[in-house]
Amino acid sequence: MNNRVSLISTLSILGLGVVAQANPILYEGFDYSAGALVGENGGTGFSNAWANSGAGGDTVTYPGNTYSSGADNLSVTGGFTTVTNTATAGSFRDFSAITAPDGTTTYWFSLISSTGGVAFGSGGDEASLQIRDSDNTELLSVGAFGSSANWRIRAKSADGATAGFSDGGDAPNSGTSAFIVIQVNINTADSAADDLYFWVNPSLDSTPTIGSATSSITGTNFWDSGDFSIQRIRSGLINSGAAESKTFSFDEFRVGDTFADVAVIPEPSLFALLIAGSIGTLVYVRRKQ
What we know:
Elements: H1 2-19, E1 26-28, E2 35-36, E3 51-54, E4 59-61, E5 68-69, E6 72-73, E7 80-85, E8 89-99, E9 104-116, E10 126-133, E11 138-145, E12 152-156, E13 163-165, E14 178-187, E15 194-200, E16 215-220, E17 229-238, E18 246-256, H2 259-262, H3 268-288
Antiparallel strand pairs: 1-18, 2-4, 3-8, 4-7, 5-6, 7-18, 8-17, 9-14, 9-18, 10-11, 10-17, 11-12, 12-13, 14-15, 15-16
Helix pairs in contact: 1-3
């Protein structure tokens, strides 16, 4: 009996280890009923429900997005959200402030996303996910911007005055659904450079190398002490020129301290092996007794 209890306890501990290997600060998998997104209030780490931005119009659609690399599958739930409009439209949601401490720190972001209608007719047009501060100022965005149809990231200073874009030349077209991972290295010292890297469809089995990044923004100072404090995400469309139809879809949004936090891989096969092995051992022990 003691052997049996010991084995079951060990199995429980191992099982908990499998589940707890990733710990995102924020997670949104859109595990809601199909229909309007506004008013929905699930996920992890958020402080209020989804609300309309501009003309609104985001809807939850099924089935949700998936992503695989090799034998690994990204952990996913629910459906995905999408908005199509000729005007500025989308949705936003707030969370407790995530503030870069003094010194150097790294944050990771990920999502599965796609756009429609690219490239756009005006330089101010975009289909994107924006990360904003408590003053509703954009600090970081990912999506399609202006006349480029390719995936790009954009960083802005806390006053919105300084902006930098990644080079979209080697990035895939944003009209194709992709798993996007962004690494943000922040140095809050005055005038110190902040470096941003992003990957389109990286492998899930290990943290990607800087050298394998799809594109980057490096050597530019965006955020000094206290400047990087994010509190809102805004997804959707911005129309600044002639009305033209655009689409932005996204799913499986995560923010974390490590790559593993934002590229979560379920391991049911390992858990099944643990159960099978433990059952076999219990049978063996019982027969010996």
